[in-house]
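Contributing new records

If you add data, match the layout below exactly. Sequence lines come first and carry their own label; structure lines follow with theirs. Keep one chain per record. Anything else will be rejected by the validation script.
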Amino acid sequence: MNRPLTALFAAFEASLVVAIGIVIPLAPLTVLWGAQFGFAGDWTTFWRASVDIWLLGHGADVRMTLDPTVAATLGLAGADAAFPVTIAILGFGGLTLLLGVRAGRRVSETRFRLLGELVAVGTFAGLSTLATLSVLHPFARPSIVQGILLPTAVFGVGILIGSLRTQRAAGDDSGSSIRDWVNDWHPTVRSVVEVGLRGGVAAVAAVIAVASLAVAVLLAANYAGIVALYESLHSEVLGGIALTGAQLAFLPNVVIWAASWFVGPGFAIGAGSAVSPLGTTLGPLPVIPMLGALPAGDLAYGFLGLLVPIVAGFLAGALLRPRLFRTDWRSSLAAGASIGVVAGVLLGLLAWFSSGAAGPGRLAVVGPDPLAVGLWAALEVGIAATIGLFAASHLKSPVAEKAERADR
């Protein structure tokens, strides 16, 4: 494949990713426009809504101004003034990342890999710019800078991951300088860093897995209440499908909120509210069917949820103990602390991505507190991982055994 064809192929891949992300909300809204509104009204309203949703999914802020009649109906303080919506609908960002990985793998298989990657990212940035500029409206105005940069950054990360995976599979040693630099570290330091990264990521993955299972169980157990909320909206079939699609896109946020609940700080749905293992305090909520699965009141054994990150940290430390070069107490403490720091940073970032302002008034505070989640996760996972490392002290790594034999 020559240079022009590589560039054209990369541009097509990037265009496809943008098109899929915008069409997902646009398709059901267009069907709704035709079937329920009889093609009356301006279709560009649905285009603007779809692009705004796509931009929100990548973290771009949208400044909203409600119609006075709608604002009065909501009954929320501040609804009659312009307000920012900053909460990210993570389903769209995750889709762009996955499609970016796929595009990166396909582009990196061409002869002119670097050219293809630059064209793909540049094309995505150009289309993101056009999409952002096409939806500027007094009632819903996205941030132009964020609308251009944030979706492009997510796609660029996906391109990078896909390219690196392809190079590694092909045995490309272009990144050997970094590996050589890491290999020059002292074996003890290198093993502590490795255990910290592996253990922190594993502990976070375990907490997220348990949180996903908990969300699924709550949705199934509160099915009747969720259906009742659907019926109260009188959205009919097409409106119900569109609403369900929006909730599915928001599901990654809910899973991260559940993980924050297990860590301890929990999350808020409006200023002054709290959903945590110690109890649930909620004020007026928007009529969103998925919220019908929220636990109500004080949970008698809710504090047991705190065992999830503790057990995850303990298992991570115990299972990774054999990877330590030295099994002395200093290495164990350093490895346990590094596991806690990595877990805290990751869960704190996830909490930050999943929170923000979702509306006017009290809805300006929605989601977990990133700092609290990160600090509690680092403390719980770090202490538990250190205990796990000491508990598995009888397990010696093959590297450590060779070092001890050499010392003799």
